[in-house]
Amino acid sequence: MTAGLLGTEAALQDTFDVALVDLDGVAYKGANAIPSAPPALGEARDAGMAVVFVTNNASREPETVAEHLAELGIPCAPHEVMTAAQAGAELLAEHIPAGQKVLVVGGAGLYTAVHAKGYVIVESADDHPAAVIQGFAPNLGWKELAEATYAINAGARYFATNLDLTLPTERGFAPGNGSLVGVVRTATGVDPLAAGKPEPAMLHMAARKAGASRPLMIGDRLDTDLKGARAAEVPGLLVLTGVSTARDAVLAVPGERPSFIGEDLSTLAESHPLPVLAESWWHVGDARARVTDGHLSVDGGSPIDRVRAACAAAWEAADSGARVDVDTLPHFG
């Protein structure tokens, strides 16, 4: 799959058979739905596109996630949710035989997923667990991290549901599971095997769950959602409603670049023009962009087409070894 932007003649919801949708920053932010999300996902379903919500949040059960989405006006069944807890339990099963003792450091969703795989869940390193699996929960504290450290230092294998350093909240960004994993990593010197995005396994599992052959990953973070899409060789749509900005997209490294960019989920109902190079300018619709002596110039067209054209120009320049001056990047509002 090319590391550049792709184009579609038909709307995305008619081109792909399932949307693998991240939650925080895509469907909702904090306690509230992103306004465009409920109608856009409803229209996509009406067009025949399946939806699976794929989240690195391992603290909640799929039933709880589905109920929350329904309260926000986004109908969802539990089987349409794939959590990092479920992916983590699958990863655990690849390395640790069922029936072994596992120290779970996380929330209810992780306990349920690990138990469902046939493991004996313990709460102390003194029980000599074969493995430790760590996922985010807002009530985790020193005691739980210490037990994980004791167990790993005693020889337990170390697993993590995901390595997100931050998570979005209504008040801003707060420490995520990756930050808490960092505490245990520092204390043990051991890097965990991780299951969530950007690892590709979670996206492959979600696509199989939907019986899909043409999945589209939709996320707001280049370093997890879109990096995961690249790793899984699945086209990725970046929506600009969460963490990563248009400026971030323009500066994205090849392994984190989206295949499509939209303002929000309403872009699922739109076709996406393929960037075209003509007379040293990259054209997307009526927008155009080029890099000259490290300076990115962008004009014309709609704001989102200017972002797309800017990405095409900046990525080509960066990949050819040319300099793209961060200080000269225009503002993408």
From TrEMBL:
Keywords: Hydrolase. InterPro entries: GNAT-like, HAD-like_sf, HAD-SF_hydro_IA, HAD-SF_hydro_IIA, HAD_sf. GO terms for cellular component: cytoplasm. It comes from the Bacteria. GO terms for molecular function: phosphatase activity. Residues 288-327 form the GCN5-related N-acetyltransferase-like domain. Pfam families: GNAT_like (PF18407), Hydrolase_6 (PF13344), Hydrolase_like (PF13242). NCBIfam families: HAD-SF-IA-v1, HAD-SF-IIA. This is HAD-superfamily subfamily IIA hydrolase, TIGR01457.
